[in-house]
Every structure is written in structure tokens, then in C-alpha cells.
Amino acid sequence: MSEFWKNYPEIFEELNDVKNIMKKSIKGSDAYLNNSIIPLVEQGGKMLRPAFVLLSGKFGEYNGEKIRNIAAVVEMLHLATLIHDDIIDNSKLRRGCDTIQSKYGKDFAVYAGDYLFCHCFDMLSKHDYSMENLRNVSKAIKKICIGEIRQNYFRYTSKINFNKYIRIISGKTAALFSLSFMLGASEAKCDLPLVRTLGKVGYNIGMAFQIIDDLLDYTGDIEKLGKATQNDLKQGYYTLPIIFALEEDKKGELASILDSSSFEKDDIKAIFELVKKFNGIEKSKALVERYSKKAFENIKKLPDCESKMILSEVLQTLIHRKY
Amino acid sequence: MSEFWKNYPEIFEELNDVKNIMKKSIKGSDAYLNNSIIPLVEQGGKMLRPAFVLLSGKFGEYNGEKIRNIAAVVEMLHLATLIHDDIIDNSKLRRGCDTIQSKYGKDFAVYAGDYLFCHCFDMLSKHDYSMENLRNVSKAIKKICIGEIRQNYFRYTSKINFNKYIRIISGKTAALFSLSFMLGASEAKCDLPLVRTLGKVGYNIGMAFQIIDDLLDYTGDIEKLGKATQNDLKQGYYTLPIIFALEEDKKGELASILDSSSFEKDDIKAIFELVKKFNGIEKSKALVERYSKKAFENIKKLPDCESKMILSEVLQTLIHRKY
């Protein structure tokens, strides 16, 4: 696991438990599946979503076993979406390792992702979770799928615009962030207004997080990121920095490069320069600020406790992340 | 819908309802998703699995709405697996229409399949179904995924053998057939021995059905099938006719052609001749007989009613199908 949670030993330790739950539940499925997915779990990434489940659970009656199990489900869902994303993008690297599809092939990646999705529902049906939350989980993944479908629909076209982008990222990213908060809170029997406020914290953190992620494609460092930069652009995904730049691109300089379906090295360089010239980076950073501000305002409304403090600090760290 | 059920007007009409439930539940999701999936539902195929849900439900307390809903879920799961299968196989045709991936691209097909999987769990969580059946559904899809993974693992290699093949098809096909029978029966509150006997009927029909399907790759008619013949072979899936032939291929004639990873037209012709020479077709047909016999024996044990009679007739029809 990354060192992201090392300043919060209780959460760090619980996330290790979450990992063990994931590994244990995958073991015994199929040797081939097992060998391919366990390293991905080991590697772990930042484990933001399961941590958010734990943190929001602590606002209510905290039943550790139940909450850690649902945190494992959420991280597994995220893994499943990553495996399928990498098929579309033909990505070679994920979390500094070979992607499932680059190592085992597209066929394997399709079914490994499907397996994980169903495994999540299997886990949800085993423990004493509410049918309502099971429905919330399926709805969130449906939102992710629709977000991804829309994102792909607008590949390699300058017809993408601000509103479309916001709809896409609220589906593909913020939905699962928001769900993580709401699942933890509702399984810990928090009252509905509190569940909703935590859901809003998640939504706004998710939006800020995704815009930062999209910014990193233009400003990031490959070694720290553990994945290739300029990847989105090369794959024809035009994200916020480009969208803001297009708004100032009155002569259509940028649009004309973007509407071709592949780029030479010079094109990439030209796009980067135009994005900077038309303030795409600056404006995107300002939007991160806006979503972060909303998230902080939501956090302020939460009852005082350690989780509240941690959420506030974590949000600070995320806003300033370089990887 | 195909004319497969036209001799059973009650089932035919109920299957139309099932289709309408599917269409209604998909509508309102996303226009793009909607437009691509509805034609697939319209086209319908034989709708064996939902029909089996209905028929087995009639052995107990038949709550039409509840049973038709779960029949819709089962058919939707099947659709989701077909969409993902077609990605792997690069298939152009399915049910006589363009496949989702050939029409809308691989990226869309991945998320459309994911969407449908989650949509099924969404539907299951909405109606008053048992958590146990929800678990059974997720387990069955996990079996399908593992079956598919194993099948792909043994592509283009003569190392595939009889036992491996049986494990593969019991996962990828018989599991969902068996589930269809068990879901209908258990949601209609049949007692456990009856649920299990119906599950066995489904398993054995599923095994016979898949072997027939694999035989049709060698003996079928492209226009009647609505999909290309020799497709499995060209994709490197070595099914039962080849596996039986390999057992008699003492000199390794057949194996040497099979272990290359692509075929010329002459190779295909040679494989067909060797499969015939080494009795691959005949022996596969004999195994179909064995599974059918088992299914008939299971059907005999069922309490007398119209569904029992229909199941018996349908099994007869399936064994002799040419498409």
C-alpha cells in the first residue's frame, strides 16, 4: 500500500485488514484468476475509497467487521473498473505494474473484471447488508458505465464541452467516491441528513480528485504517477485543460489539431502550448479550488470527531498531490 | 422472438411480457445504450433460459409478476455475457444482426455488458427476491467467467482434453441453465428436493445444448444459425469433436495442425476431414445422447403437470435442432 495513510495508524492498519479480506475472498476462486488479481490488490494504490468507507462509518455505530467488509467490496469494484478501463485504453502500466490486459490478454481482462463485479455482489449478499445499499452499489456502477460510455463517445472530437465533461466525471469518478461515504455512514446507522452530507463530501472530493488527475496528464511525473503521462491526450480523451482552452480558441487553432484521430509528436507539443496559452491549466486549477471549497464546507457541517479532522487533512493533501 | 415457443401459447405470451419487462427496464438509462441494446432484446433468440424460469416456476406457487421479472433478469445476464463474448471473438454476427462491438466498438461493448450485469443486480434488489437467490445469481456468473477464462487459456493448443472441456462447458453454459431452473422453482417456493431435481434437469440440458452448439460449428448452416460456422475453430477454440478426434490421433497428424496459431483454408479442410476420420462427430453425438438421457430421467422424477410435458417436448426439439 502507498504511504498515503501512514500518518493515521488506525486507518492504515484497518486498510491492511481490508486488503486481507480482499485477498482471502479472491483466493480459492481459480488459480489463474487468483495469481493475476492478488498482485493488484497487494500493490493497492492509495485506497482512498475503502478509507472513506471506514472514516464515514466512524460517524455512527462502528461495527468494524461489517464496515471493513463493505470497504473491501468498494475497492474491489474499483479494481474491476480499472481492469476494464485498461482494456479500452490499451494501457501498459497501472500502479507501476503491467496491466492485466497487457500481461494476460484482452480476453482474460474482460472476464476477470466481470468476475470481480459479480464477486462484489456475492460478498454483499453474504453479510447482513441492506438491500437498499446493494441497490445503491449497482446504481453507482451503472453511473460509472454510462460515464465511461459518454467519455468514449466524445473521443477525438472538439465537440466535447464543459457540461458534458462534468457529467462524464461525475459518473465515472464522483459516483463511487460519494457511494463510499454513503455506504459507510448508512451501514453504521447514521441518520439520513448525515448520510447525505457525507455523500456530498464524497461527491465534491471525487470531482476535485478527477480534475487533478486530468491535470496531471499535462503536468505530472511518470515515475511518481506509476502510469504514463499524456496518456489521455494520446488516446483522444480531451479533458478539462483542453476544454477550457477550446473556449478561448477563437480561431480554431487547437480544434483543428484535436479533430484528427492520431497525433504526431509535434502535434502533442503544439497542443500543450496552446492549452497553456489559452489558460487551460490555470482555469482547471481554479475549478479544483471550487470543488475543494465545497467539500470543506460540507466537512464543516459534520459533527466533531477524529474522522472529521482526518477528512479535512486528507482533502488538503489530495488537493496538493503531484502523483 | 424466434418461433421456438409458438406451440406453447401461454409460454410464448409470457415470454413476450418478459421482453417488455427487459425493454422497459433498459429504457431511460442512456439514449446511446438504449438504442444499442433494445434491438438485441427485440431480436431475442430462443429465450430458453427465461422460458425455463417460467416453466420451473409453475411447479410451485406461481406468482407471475415475480417470476417473469426474474426471467427477465436471467435473459439480461445472458445478453451481458454474449456482448462480452463477442468482444473476445471479434464476432460480426449474433442472432443475425451486427454484434454490439462490431457496430459500436470494443469500448462501448465492455461498458454496455458491465452496465447490464449491474442492471440485473439492481432489478434483483428491487423486487422481493431472497438474498440467497441473489447470491446464486452472482455465483453462477462467476462460474461463467471462470469457464470462459479456462476456455481462452486453452485456445490454439491440443493440450485441451475431455475433462477440461467438460469443466469449461459446465461453467460457461450449464451453470446458467441450471440456475434458471432453480431460480424459478425456489422463488415459487418449491421444496428443496424439487428445486434440486429441476436444477439437474437444467444442468443436463445445458451440457447437451452446448455440445450440440459445438457440433453445429462443424455441421451447421450459416443462414439458419444466424452466426458464422467454423467460427470456434478459426478462433482457436477446440471443442468436443476435435477433442474426441485427438484421442484417436495416435500419429499426431491433427495435433500438429492445431498447435499453430492461425489456419489457412487448406488447414481447415484437413482438420474437418481428420475430425470425421477419427470419429469426432459421432462420439460427440453419443455424448449428447447421454446428457439428454440423464435430463429425461430427471424430468421423469418431476410431479406430473403441463410444465413437465413441455420440458420433455422441448428437450426432444433441442436434441434434434439444426440451428
In DSSP terms (H or I, runs of 4 or more residues), the helix count of chain A works out at 16
| Main structural class of chain A | mainly alpha
Level-1 CATH class name of chain A: Mainly Alpha
Major sheet of chain A: size, sense and barrel closure? Answer: 2 strands, antiparallel
The strands making up the biggest β-sheet of chain A line up spatially as 1-2
DSSP strand content of chain A? under 5%
Helix content of chain A: over 70%
The CATH superfamily title of chain A: Farnesyl Diphosphate Synthase
Short note summarizing the structure:
The structure is a homodimer of 323-residue chains. By secondary structure, the first copy, chain A, is mainly alpha-helical.
Architecture blueprint of SSEs:
The structure is a homodimer of 323-residue chains.
Chain A: H1 9-26, H2 31-43, H3 48-57, H4 64-89, E1 93-94, E2 97-98, H5 100-104, H6 106-126, H7 131-153, H8 162-187, H9 192-219, H10 222-225, H11 231-234, H12 240-248, H13 253-258, H14 265-277, H15 280-300, H16 306-319
Antiparallel strand pairs in A: 1-2
Helix pairs in contact in A: 1-2, 1-3, 1-4, 3-4, 3-8, 4-6, 4-7, 4-8, 7-8, 8-9, 9-15, 12-14, 12-15, 15-16
